[in-house]
Design a protein that fits this description.
By secondary structure, the protein is α+β, with helices and mostly antiparallel strands. The chain has a domain at 11-114: Phox-like domain (PX Domain), CATH 3.30.1520. 37% of the residues lie in helices and 15% in strands. The chain is built from 8 helices and 3 strands; from the N terminus they run βββαααααααα. The protein has helices at 54-67, 88-105, 109-112, 115-122, 127-134, 142-152, 157-162, 169-174, and strands spanning 11-22, 28-38, 47-53. It has a 3-stranded antiparallel beta sheet with strand order 1-2-3. The chain is globular and about 60 Å long.
């Protein structure tokens, strides 16, 4: 007897942990952690964790819209001149808007087929590098980029629970101390340290 289990596909996306990052002595910005947990065959990694800023969401929406002209994409939370990054209500309102934006996008099969979306959600590549990767101007493929980011960045809360056995001893042993992605005090950070210097201006 052959039993075929038909599991319902799901994609859980959380936008959380807003943090103020200093760009230089005059400019700061907020980035947000995007956490993905899924069993969808569309995704290279079933769990991932990256940090993105509002400007990168704007870029993503523009690129997705230009590739899917007939689809009306959901709106991003509006960029208001009165936005105050020190006001928790402003920050949380934007965070909720960004999460709703991603939730809606991830329900659309056509948008899910866009490699830029996967690079945005599962690597820390800049928009320029994502464009280069998608257009074949890099030595690495989209899947390579996602796998190599994951190998640098092994600490995912849900994955850890699922393989509980050795907890994350194996992960911390295999962590490369030269990568600059060592253990972090904050469990939500997934071991990624933001580097404002690498951020596009």
């Amino acid at each position: 007897l052959i039993f075929i289990m038909h599991l319902q596909e799901f994609v859980t996306v959380l936008v959380r942990d807003p943090r103020i990052q200093k760009e230089d002595s005059w400019h700061s910005y907020i980035d947000y952690e995007i956490f993905i947990h899924t069993n969808s065959i569309c995704f290279t990694r079933k769990t991932s964790c990256v940090r993105r800023r509002y400007r990168e969401f704007v870029w993503l929406r523009q690129r997705l819209q230009s590739n899917a002209v007939l689809i009306q994409l959901p709106e991003l939370p509006s960029k208001t001149p009165f936005f105050n990054m020190n006001n928790p209500n402003h920050v949380d309102h934007r965070r909720q808007g960004l999460q709703e934006f991603l939730e809606k996008i991830l329900q659309d099969a056509l948008l899910l087929s866009d490699s830029r979306l996967h690079l945005f959600l599962q690597t820390q590549l800049s928009p320029e590098d994502m464009e280069a990767c998608v257009s074949g101007q890099t030595k690495y493929s989209v899947a390579d980029a996602i796998h190599s980011f994951a190998s640098l960045n092994r600490r995912f809360p849900i994955e850890d629970e699922e393989r509980k056995k050795g907890k994350n001893d194996a992960d911390s042993d295999s962590e490369s101390s030269s990568s600059g992605l060592g253990p972090s005090d904050d469990s939500i950070s997934c071991g990624y340290k933001a580097s404002p210097a690498s951020e596009e201006s």
